């Protein structure tokens, strides 16, 4: 019998299982789907050259997580992809809020929606 059973092979379950295994526990991971990954999966069903996210695809906190970086997943093939415009929300009036990797681009985008939000974004960015 394993020391721990982790239900679900999504990102959180796999990180938990890895941390327990690194601590010397025997771990069994149970997953309903045919492959691990949870919401972090993709396929090439539309075309072999086109990668489509099956669920979610935006993980800024995972990329910055000391726990995830401590697993050294790059040694096992992890490669982070970073789009310049990370998230965009187009509006029917033609405006588009943009979250960009560059602080000024995001701040300017937010400022266009509500005066003061650009400065608030810069403060939040500086804090984190």
Describe the structure concisely for a colleague.
Helices cover 34% and strands 23% of the residues. It has 128 residues and is an alpha+beta fold. The strands form three sheets. The protein has a two-stranded parallel ribbon with strand order 1-2.
Describe this entry's structure for a reader.
With 128 residues, the chain is an alpha+beta fold. It has 2 domains: 1-80, FAD/NAD(P)-binding domain; 82-128, no CATH class. The chain has helices spanning 11-22, 60-64, 66-70, 103-113, 117-127; strands at residues 4-7, 27-30, 42-47, 50-53, 85-90, 96-100. Helix 4 (103-113) runs antiparallel to helix 5. It is extended, with a radius of gyration of 19 Å. The protein starts with a strand and ends with a helix.
CATH class of the largest domain: Alpha Beta
By helix and strand content, what is the structural category? Answer: alpha+beta
- Average pLDDT: 89
> How many strand segments?
6
Task: Estimate percent helicity.
Answer: 25-40%
Which percent band covers the strand fraction? 15-25%
Contiguous low-pLDDT stretches (5 residues minimum) are none
Q: Oligomeric form of this entry?
A: single chain
Task: Estimate the global geometry from the Cα principal axes.
Answer: extended
Main-sheet strand order equals 1-2
Please give the radius of gyration in angstroms: 19 Å
Descriptive keywords:
FAD/NAD(P)-binding domain; two-stranded parallel ribbon; 5 helices
């Amino acid at each position: 019998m394993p020391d721990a059973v982790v239900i679900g092979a999504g990102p959180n379950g796999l990180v938990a299982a890895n941390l327990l295994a690194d601590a010397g526990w025997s771990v069994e991971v149970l997953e309903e789907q045919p492959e691990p990954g949870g919401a972090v999966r993709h396929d090439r069903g539309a075309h072999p050259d086109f990668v489509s996210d099956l669920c979610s695809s935006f993980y800024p906190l995972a990329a910055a997580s000391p726990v995830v970086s401590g697993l050294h997943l790059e040694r096992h093939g992890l490669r982070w992809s970073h789009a310049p415009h990370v998230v965009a929300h187009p509006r029917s009036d033609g405006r588009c809020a943009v979250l960009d990797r560059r602080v000024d681009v995001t701040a300017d985008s937010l400022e266009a929606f509500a005066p003061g939000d650009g400065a608030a974004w810069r403060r939040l960015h500086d804090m984190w």
